[in-house]
Amino acid sequence: MNEPRIxxxxxxxxxxxxGVALRRAGFRNFTLFEKADDYGGTWRDNTYPGxxxxxxxxxxxxxxxxxxxxxxxxxxxxxxxxxxxxxxxxHGLRPFTxxxxxxxxxxxxxxxxxxxxxxGGVERFDFVMCATGFLHHPKRPDIAGLDDFAGTVMHSSxxxxxxxxxxxxxxxxxxGSTGTQLVSALAGQVPKVVMFQRTxxxxxxxxxxxxxxVTKKVYQRLPVLGTAAYHLNRGFFAAFSxxxxxxxxxxxxxxxxxxxxxxxxKDPELRRKLTPDYQAMCKRLVVSDRFxxxxxxxxxDLVTNGIDHVKxxxxxxxxxxxxxxxILVLATGFDSHAFxxxxxxxxxxxxxxxxxxxDGPRAYEGIMMPDFPNLFMLVGPHSPFANHPLTxxxxxxxxxxVWWLKRWxxxxxxxxxxxxxxxxxxxxxxRAAAPSTVWSTGCQSWYLGKDGMPELWPWSPxxxxxxxxxxxxxxxxxxxxxxxxxx
Length: 487
Description:
5-stranded parallel sheet
């Protein structure tokens, strides 16, 4: 049998999903490279206090690995990481995985890829699949004097569990999901929490209920309930997504819900500080059952004056006030436009990824790029990842990739890449639809590219999955046959 040599880069959600998809389709000649020492991706790297998924557990999972034993409606980070590790082991990925090995480069030569790794290795692969995610390069703010701070400074994604929190005054820079979760978890556990806010966030209220043991047993005995819960959540998110991509009743309803939730803040001045000046969902919507009650505590300070600089004793804001601190946490997000970089990737005719993306990341259907044959991405540029489970996106994209691999195995082609015309047409189509999305309504967010346009799929995730699961049109691709020597 014509068996392709496959490299998967990254063992997070997408890498695990791709590996399982390959095994289920009968592909065995693949290597899963992971620079860390375990599976899990972002759920391995992020271990900060209060880390919780903002998508319900019964939806944030693979359909081929339903978990009846979720402990609560929105699972904590360690539980999700354990789930992902369990999926990898249960589906036999360990023998195919190389831990502690980072892929540093990939160069297309002839009709295959030469892949170089951090341990000095050089291997040949017919296909390279980049499952590197998009939220894994921490963004450190450019604040004067940050290195002068006498206490501990750490990014939220690199939490130092050796640092003692008891009795410490903690400052948190950032107000997104991470910042709100951190403040909610630390309040009452330390003497003082200071949250430095540049931009307020809309907060969607929820109740994170715990599941009783009897509930878990029922789901174990009746797997159909897990499937029903998955599709019930899927239906809810499908309705929710309409508010993201089209103005109308759903968008107005969500705006009403978050505005009403804000009214739970009793102090008018504090409520004013917490009121955004943009539409709900323009930034990634924050989901929390505690933040507004926590931020009203006397041991929590919300600081809205801009940070001027940091000194040894703490943070000095633009009004000249010194906020004395012992620990400073940078909940400042990630370089969401890096994707596979800094991995050096070179396609045909010496064209590098940096050259191809000089004006910002571009792809065809979030999976492939012209001039980079047999290179696939999972959750690549313009994938539907706004408040949507990446498990579902990864499953749909893995299915498409496996479809192409089966065609390769049947000797229908040797190399494949989308045409420039198809990619240009696809990206123009998305740009034309972007103005109707909520992300184009006038806020600054990590969703926006260099040109200020959203770099997200501008329709519902369901439409994306429908498109990506249908049989592709060969006219959109360049499929080549090559003379082989000793394959």
